Amino acid sequence: MCRGLFRATLVSAALALCASAMPARAEEKPVADRIADARAALEEAGYQFSITYIGEGFGNASGGVSTGKAYTGRLDLGTTIDLEKVMGWTGATFHANMFQIHGDGLSRGYVGNLFLVSGVESLPATRLYELWIEQKLLDGRLAIRVGQQGSDVEFIDSQYDDIFINSALGWPGITGVNLPAGGPSPALAVPGIRIKASLTDRLTAYLGLFDGSSAPPQATVDPQLANPHGILFRVNDPPWWIGQLKYKFDIGESKLPATITGGAWYHMMSFADQRFGADGLSLADPDSSGDPRWLRRDNGIFMVYEQLLARAKPDVDKGIAFFMRASISPSDRNLISAYVDGGLLFAGFSESFPDDRFGIAGIFGKISSAARALDRDTQIFTGTAYPIRDYEAILEITYQHVVSANFTMQPMFQYIAHPGGGAVDPNDPTQTHRIRDSMVFGMRTILSY
Fold first, then answer.
1. Separation between Cα atoms, residue 119 and residue 18, nearest integer Å
2. C-alpha neighbours within 13 Å on the C-beta side of residue 214
């Protein structure tokens, strides 16, 4: 028995010695790490892919057209290809992305406001958004982009407004309301050419020439229904021009960064008069044909100012930041004639959550004098106390919590004063009461990879 135990011990020791002499088997990487490695390899080869899902649950707690809640979701699939790495085309980049939008919008069904509760809100569809090629020249100081694209990322934009949820705090409410089909912004882009030139280290010029509408002009259906999949690629409409100059500078001994932007746009399409018909009568007059008078061309001027007010830590561009945007357009052919928004962004103050951000912003859009005159005409011809529209104003408060590198949660509150600019409540049979002020609460989640 002792000899058997000795032999067994000897065999075990020999096996252990052999095992220690063999090379250790590499531990298999988790699936997430293998995917990350594959993605890094693709990026090194010139291919970038992105997947972002935004899910929003918002509720109208009081006021508006009716109380209720809605869920909206948008899946964004995108790719950016470095054509220099892939095919030797120096300085060229290709980009494309598409949306899959589902759910209901809170603004259409419950609030009745001009400036949508969310920039994601749109009609359900699977839609191509952008499809363009950009060529950089002169060591990158000149960039020319050609193809279907949005204008909201570079024009009339602030780096400090991206946290906010209301649509007007992305693409400004005045252009979103006045331009045909809302202008080139989510959820519909248009074919165009954008030129960006770095004139100096501080001064950058932008010029854009876009097709005038993403859907057939004067269509009787919603533009998103007229161009449901974003593939009409319209190029024959009267064009829309936009240009701006952006100047960067520093303030004070601590050199707080600031930027001021000024610009203008010009649309070569015809626009409907907000008060008078083709027969010269008020559109509220029972004897009017009801066909609006068409006015040639439209335009607007705008400015943007943004500044870091205080740093959370030295040499870090996080802290308290401020932005403001303002714009005006002619009254006779636009529903909104004057617009201003602005806000404060707080970031980098928490040691535990250094990437979390808090924001508070306000929006004000003035109803044009021509549209208000039409409402007064309606009072006269109907003999009722028909509401006279004046403005729509919104307060938004939001907090963005970064749960992980790929997931954020964002509670939000909006107070919407005079939805629709103070429009008549569609549920009021007397047509004498405005839509009541609305209070909206909800949560946005963003999953990205």
1. 65
2. 29
- Summarised one tens digit per residue, pLDDT across range 243-264 is 999 999 999 888 999 999 999 9
- Contacting residues for 222 by C-beta, under 8 A, at least 6 apart: 123
CA dihedral sign, ordered 10, 16, 20, 25: positive
User: Residue 175, SS3?
Assistant: helix
Greater model confidence, 22 or 145? 145
What pLDDT sits at residue 27?
A: 60
Identity of residue 242: I
- What percent of the chain shows pLDDT beyond 70? 93
Torsion of the alpha carbons at 39, 42, 46 and 47, rounded to the nearest 10 = -70
Largest CA distance in the chain: 120
For residue 287, what are its two tokens?
């004897």
CA distances, 216 to each of 124, 220, 221, 227, 309 (Å):
19, 9, 9, 8, 45
In angstroms, the CA 358 to CA 343 distance is 11
What would the DSSP string read from start to end of 240-278? EEEEEEEEEEEETTTTEEEEEEEEEEEEEEEEEEEEEET
Contact 292, 270 (CB under 8 A): no
Cα separation, 148 vs 208, in Å, equals: 12
Query: 3-class SS at 38?
Result: helix
148: Cβ contacts below 8 Å, ≥ 6 apart = 128, 129, 130, 131, 132, 189, 190, 191, 192, 230, 233
pTM of the model: 0.91
Q: Are strands 319-328 and 357-367 parallel, antiparallel or unpaired?
A: unpaired
Q: Which of 405, 396, 398 is closest to 446 using CA atoms?
A: 405
Per-chain mean pLDDT for the chain: 93
**Do residues 422 and 50 make contact, with C-beta atoms less than 8 angstroms apart?**
no
Q: E-assigned strands of 104-235?
A: 125-137, 142-149, 190-198, 203-210
Indicate if the pLDDT at residue 14 is higher than 80.
Answer: no
> What's the pLDDT score for residue 187?
93
Q: Give the integer Cα–Cα distance in Å for 104 and 110.
A: 10
What is the H or E stretch that residue 296 is in?
A: strand 292-311
8 Å CB contact between 387 and 378: no
